[in-house]
Design a protein that fits this description.
OB fold (Dihydrolipoamide Acetyltransferase, E2P), 2 domains, elongated, disordered N terminus
Length: 295
């Protein structure tokens, strides 16, 4: 550690540790980290053991960083790693994850319109699931019908959530629940379509798969706001259609109407031609070279 300059000023920031690896021979620090948050993706060295654990969640942390501490081609050093599971994930999702430069920013804006703190925390917990955090941006919304292309699910879901946020028939808690339902109504498709191929979860339906796979965030919502848990579970599972509960029916029917409108808009944009059958392949738009500086 002789090359580490402890006199360098340190700064703290919330970030996701995206990857970690042992340094190559000759590097003064034993570990390399790829760290990300909204506007940047950076590589840093550290003497801290990353201590990775197998988990379904992305690793949200509060990092103490120093710049130019080693005076090397990797100028950033992580001096301390503190776990930050409650950090608001929408500040940490890299802008470049979207298929265009605006889609992540649109998600942040529509989430910011949700006023209910338990629902905002719920959304943050859902998008902290590794599968949602990473795959939401490149999954299609259907196999060969509407939005049947990489990134189609995000475009379709965010579009519907934006419409719900501007719906004059809804206000207050009903509006917040409608935005959350619209944003997550197809979330189970992440697991049904998988990252590379279709899975057995399709036999369960994407609605029930979604409820099962986001059970941890739903449990946290139940602890914070049991009524909200019941309402969202009924909506996301499709139970509202058979239960015919009037308040839920109103929200569900509005989301259903917007779903149909979003489908028709996408099909019109195709000028009558169906998309080719979707094949699950890694999306190049979700990969970005690590930049060597902090600019």
């Amino acid at each position: 550690m002789d090359s580490f300059d402890r006199a360098v000023q340190a700064n703290q920031t919330f970030a996701v540790i995206d990857k970690h690896a042992r340094s190559q021979a000759g590097c003064p620090a034993p570990f390399l980290l790829d760290i990300v948050r909204g506007e940047w993706t950076r590589r840093a060295e550290t003497w801290c053991d990353p201590n990775p654990e197998e988990t379904t969640l992305v690793r949200k942390t509060l990092l103490t960083l120093a710049v130019d501490a080693c005076h090397r081609h990797i100028p950033w050093v992580v001096m301390e790693i503190d776990e930050a599971p409650d950090a608001f994930v929408f500040d940490l999702i890299p802008d470049h994850f979207g298929m265009d430069t605006s889609i992540v920013q649109r998600l942040r804006r529509v989430v910011a319109q949700v006023k209910s703190e338990p629902l905002r925390d719920f959304l943050s917990n859902v998008f902290s699931l590794s599968m949602v955090y990473r795959h939401f941006w490149k999954c299609p919304a259907s196999q060969w019908h509407h939005h049947a292309y990489a990134g189609g699910l995000a475009i379709h879901s965010i579009e519907m959530a934006e419409w719900m946020a501007d719906t004059p028939e809804l206000s207050g808690t009903d509006r917040d629940i409608g935005v959350v339902f619209a944003l997550l109504h197809d979330i189970g498709k992440l697991w049904c379509y998988g990252e590379r191929e279709f899975t057995h979860y399709q036999d369960l339906t994407h609605e029930l798969t979604g409820v099962a796979k986001i059970s941890q965030p739903l449990d946290a919502l139940d602890a914070a706001w049991p009524h909200g848990f019941v309402v969202l579970t009924s909506l996301l599972s499709g139970l509202w259609k058979s239960k015919r509960d009037k308040p839920l029916l109103a929200i569900g029917e509005i989301v259903q109407r917007y779903d149909q409108s979003s489908v028709r808009r996408d099909l019109r944009n195709q000028k009558g031609a169906r998309h080719q059958r979707w094949n699950a392949k890694p999306c190049a738009g979700n990969v970005r070279p690590i930049r060597p500086d902090w600019q």
